[in-house]
Every structure is written in C-alpha cells, then in structure tokens.
Amino acid sequence: DKGNHRHFMQKEIYEQPVVVAQTLSSYLRTLEAKVALPDMEFDLGSVERVAIVACGTASYVGAIGKYWLEQMARVPVEVDVASEFRYREPVLGPNTLGLVISQSGETADTLAALRHMKSEGVTTAGIINVPTSSMAREVDLLLPTHAGPEIGVASTKAFTCQLAVMAALAANIARAKGKLSDADEAVLVKHLAEVPAAMNAALAHDAEIEGMAHTIAGARDVLYLGRGPDYPLALEGALKLKEISYIHAEGYAAGEMKHGPIALIDESVPVIVIAPSGPLFDKTVSNMQEVQARGGKVVLISDSEGLAQAGEGALATIEMPKVHPLIAPLVYAVPVQLLAYHVAVVKGTDVDQPRNLAKSVTVE
Ligand code: F6R
Fold first, then answer.
1. Strand 123-128 to strand 141-144: parallel, antiparallel, or no bridges (unpaired)?
2. Which residue among 16, 182, 257, 303 is least enclosed by CB atoms within 10 Å?
C-alpha cells in the first residue's frame, strides 16, 4: 500500500527516518552510550581483514564501510562486486571476516560469493534485510536491517539501513580491537542517534528538489562528485538517476575529474557536488570550481557553512543540516534519492518498475 504516496519509491524514501531509527535501536544502547551487536560465536577482536562482497547499491554501502572500518578499526578492507569476486581468486587469509550486504538476501552472485568464502573456511557476516532469505540462513553472523519490505526496484531505505548497521559493525570491531575509547564510542553513538532527525530535516527540502528536477530532466549526462565516504554516495546517486530516469550518469571521486572526465564538461552537463563541510570540503570545492570555470552547471549539496563559503555561482544549492562527517552519507542520501525520483517523475518513467530491471537478481 502506497498510502498518500504516488510511488513506492517515494514512500520508502519518506520511511527512512523511522526505519533507520528502528534499525539503530537494535544496534545502539543510547543510555549506556554503547554500540552492540547480536551475540556471536567468534571474537571480533581477532579480525585482521574484512572482505566485503555485494552488488549494486549494496556494494556502495561496502565502499563507504571501507572508509569507516579502516578509519575506526584500522583493519584493511577489500570491497568487491560479487560478480567479480570468485573469479579473481581472492586471497582470503586467516582472520578475514567475509561480509555480504544484500537487501533481498537472494542475489545470485552475492550468494555464490558467500558460499565461496565459507568453502574457504572464512567466518562470514551478512547485513541483510529479508530475514528468511538464503543468505540470512547461511551466514555465521546475521546483522539484520529493519527496513521492512522494499517494493520499489530502486533501493532507498534498505541502503540507509545497511549504512546504519555498517557503522555499528565498524564501531564494534574497533572496540574489540582496542581502537575505540569509551569517549569516542559515546560521541559516535550520539551522532548515529541524530541521524533520523537529520533525515527529517533533509526531507523538508523535497519541494525545492522537485523544482530543480525539470532542469536535470533535460540533460543527456549528469555527473556526481564526492570525496571520502561521500565518493561512493556519488556513485549511488549516479546509479539511482540512471536506473529510474534513464539519463546517463556517472559518479567520480572529485579529485579524479582533472584526470579525464572534466573533458565532458560544458553548459549542458549538470554536476551534482556532494560536499558536507569538514576536512575534505576545501579540496572538493576547488574541484567544483574547475567544473564551473568550464561552464559546468553545479548543484551543490552542503550545509549552511559550506553553502555560505561556496554556494555562490552554483545553479542550485540544497542545504543539509550540519552533521558529523561520519553520518553525512546517511543524511546526504536523502536529497540524492529525491533528485533521482523527481527527475524520473518529470520524465514519466515507470519509477517503481524501471525497464530491464528486477527487484531480486537470481541469475549470475
Ligand atoms: C539499485 C538496486 C540494485 C541492488 C542490487 C543488489 O537501486 O536496487 O543495484 O542494490 O541488485 O540487490 P540486493 O541488495 O538484494 O542483493
């Protein structure tokens, strides 16, 4: 049931503050300022490497998780798309934690990768939304997301719930390895607990984003730029736009622009810049200015501080609440999803059932 919403995708975007709060509530003990995972039979402190395998949107959760795990827990992380994983003969040493991420828990390539890891003796965990799925049954440690059924083919609420669990997992591994002090854990719990309210603040910009959808809908190509954990979010933004609006879109690490893609820039190419204020902001802004100097039309998504510093000269700006860099990908996901959604509505595509796509991909 879509309720008051025109599409399931819109409904699912709007459900995010509630389902992310639901998911977080089973991974945070806010009163004690602690993160917590379900009971498990192995010691997270012994994890020396993490191998993350997933497809599509779920693989971008893995890519964001790599930044978090490496920063917080100081363990090396590899991220593979599942269709490539088995065939590159990955080196899976002892003390590797194999992590699969999947909404459906049935994606054929991810399931095959999970079975491959198990056959190599690797301990596995899964961030999975459908609790009765094959992957949920087969992983050693199930880390459920509580997004509820996701009907729209384009993943939205599953993505942000997966990120919430990923942050909790990274913090738990960090703590088990002695890399996270009680004080830092308390700060992290506080920031994570702020996510639902920050998502509500982001949703309040819906009408504005709808207003800019007409301009974007006329484009042939759109680029998304981000740095650090917001780089995989740029990839996710581009995927979302291409799958439901059929506009060609690419995500790039902002600093990579000058190594090739900047050749594409002219007045007809909108560039969506995801840049919360923080340590990486100035660098991203200088990449954005390189785009503007070539006539590129920028949509800057940042907070009040960032927009005051760099919003001048942008085609449009979207103001996010000021949040800690750690949680920015969860909050900035909202405008990125809304933009794709409204562009698709302007274009009149079948938003919930885009052509050529299936909700669950059970062939390799
Ligand atoms: C994109 C999308 C797909 C899925 C991918 C993995 O919006 O929905 O890229 O993320 O097919 O699906 P799951 O998470 O079910 O393994």
1. parallel
2. 182
